[in-house]
Amino acid sequence: MTNYGAIPTSSHPSLGVDLEYISRAKHRIKSGLATRRPWKLMFDYDSMTVPHGFFDAISRIKTNLGYFRANYVIGVLFILFISLLYHPTSLLVLAILVVFWIFLYFLRDEPLIVFGYQIDDRTVMVALSVLTVVMLMLTHATVNILGSLLTAAVLVLVHAGVRRSDNLFLDEEAAAATEVSGLTSYPSS
């Protein structure tokens, strides 16, 4: 088939929609990972000091949680993954639940419609959260999962409290996004 400058058309219209959906999903995942900061910056030894007091620690935690958000999420998921290596059933259930979360919550552009009723995002999030908790409890790895999440939360809070935040610079666009979201800082670079 030659098309010499003509716009090629697909004989399968659903294939184009599927490829567009996959392309959009890849773009969203890349843009989400684009907020990840360099690990070398995150674990800079010279930036690790004990906070001067409680309010200094809270300020550091807020700033670092906003700045290293993607890194912390990756770290928590890695710790959770490591803890589930000895529970392959739980790992499989978690992988299936991640697929549900990705397609039903994160990558959805249009509202979810079930039996002609529009379901809002909050309802979808609550339903997926309940489903996740119930399914993971049924795999009998609840203590393991809760322990790994608690460990990850402690590690994140300790790092965020010890990591100095005075060398993390905000730009004007990030400061505006911070004020809208109510966080102390959410810079982008």
Automatic annotation (TrEMBL):
<dbReference type="GO" id="GO:0016020">
    <property type="term" value="C:membrane"/>
</dbReference>
<dbReference type="GO" id="GO:0005783">
    <property type="term" value="C:endoplasmic reticulum"/>
</dbReference>
<feature type="transmembrane region" description="Helical">
    <location>
        <begin position="119"/>
        <end position="139"/>
    </location>
</feature>
<keyword id="KW-1133">Transmembrane helix</keyword>
<dbReference type="GO" id="GO:0016192">
    <property type="term" value="P:vesicle-mediated transport"/>
</dbReference>
<dbReference type="Pfam" id="PF03208">
    <property type="entry name" value="PRA1"/>
</dbReference>
<keyword id="KW-0472">Membrane</keyword>
<comment type="similarity">
    <text>Belongs to the PRA1 family.</text>
</comment>
<comment type="function">
    <text>May be involved in both secretory and endocytic intracellular trafficking in the endosomal/prevacuolar compartments.</text>
</comment>
<feature type="transmembrane region" description="Helical">
    <location>
        <begin position="67"/>
        <end position="85"/>
    </location>
</feature>
<keyword id="KW-0813">Transport</keyword>
<dbReference type="InterPro" id="IPR004895">
    <property type="entry name" value="Prenylated_rab_accept_PRA1"/>
</dbReference>
<protein>
    <recommendedName>
        <fullName>PRA1 family protein</fullName>
    </recommendedName>
</protein>
<dbReference type="GO" id="GO:0005794">
    <property type="term" value="C:Golgi apparatus"/>
</dbReference>
<keyword id="KW-0812">Transmembrane</keyword>
